[in-house]
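Design job #97: recover the sequence.
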């Protein structure tokens, strides 16, 4: 107990075999056990760190930022519940410089109001630039080449006459086709109906001859005698 052997009352009668312990050897053995435990724990930590690094590197990508690049900065000053808050600040920054070969950049507000900040690459996101929309211009026609009112009326009237002739021809053809198709369908239907009537026997519907057919014996669920 507490690094010592307990002394019991029976030891007064039987005596004890006391032996001296070399403190130097004990300290050496204890130090060796501590070193072995430390090395084993260090090896386990390195193994777990390598596995976590492999898992993280699968989704990691290098973000190369050039001088003057416009970026967003991650918000870090939100307190309380922020589940639906935007992760990135709406203020636009621009890259001023890069610190050595590390992923550390110096940024400042794009509008020029505010001081510079030194942040890590993980805290930045590239600001997308709006696409430039090019407007197409219609060809310019001289005024003297524009069609006059009379020319437009003649063109419209001629096109209407042509459309009317085409429609009348199409209607005449379609009416003839419809009449012939209707006659063929009616002939086929009469032939089919005669064949069905000659080969199919329609069963007779059975009806009850009771006077109380279709009437409930006890519609209101009234109690009655078992003799009935």
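Job complete. Output follows.
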């Amino acid at each position: 107990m507490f690094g010592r052997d307990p002394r019991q009352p029976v030891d007064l009668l039987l005596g004890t075999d006391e032996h001296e312990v070399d403190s130097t050897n004990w300290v050496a053995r204890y130090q060796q056990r501590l070193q072995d435990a430390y090395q084993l724990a260090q090896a386990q930590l390195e193994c777990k760190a390598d596995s976590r690094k492999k898992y993280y590197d699968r989704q990691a990508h290098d973000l190369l930022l050039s001088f003057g690049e416009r970026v967003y900065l991650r918000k870090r000053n939100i307190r309380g519940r922020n589940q639906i808050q935007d992760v990135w600040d709406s203020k636009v920054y621009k890259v001023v410089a890069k610190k050595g070969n590390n992923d550390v950049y110096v940024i400042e507000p794009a509008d020029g109001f505010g001081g510079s900040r030194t942040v890590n690459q993980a805290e930045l996101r590239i600001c997308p630039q709006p696409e430039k929309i090019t407007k197409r211009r219609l060809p310019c026609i001289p005024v003297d080449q524009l069609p006059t009112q009379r020319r437009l009326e003649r063109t419209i009237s001629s096109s209407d006459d042509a459309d009317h002739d085409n429609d009348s021809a199409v209607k005449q053809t379609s009416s003839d086709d419809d009449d012939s198709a209707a006659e063929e369908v009616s002939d086929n239907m009469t032939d089919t109906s005669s064949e069905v009537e000659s080969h199919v026997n329609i069963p007779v519907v059975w009806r009850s001859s009771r006077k109380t057919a279709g009437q409930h014996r006890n519609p209101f669920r009234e109690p009655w005698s078992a003799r009935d």
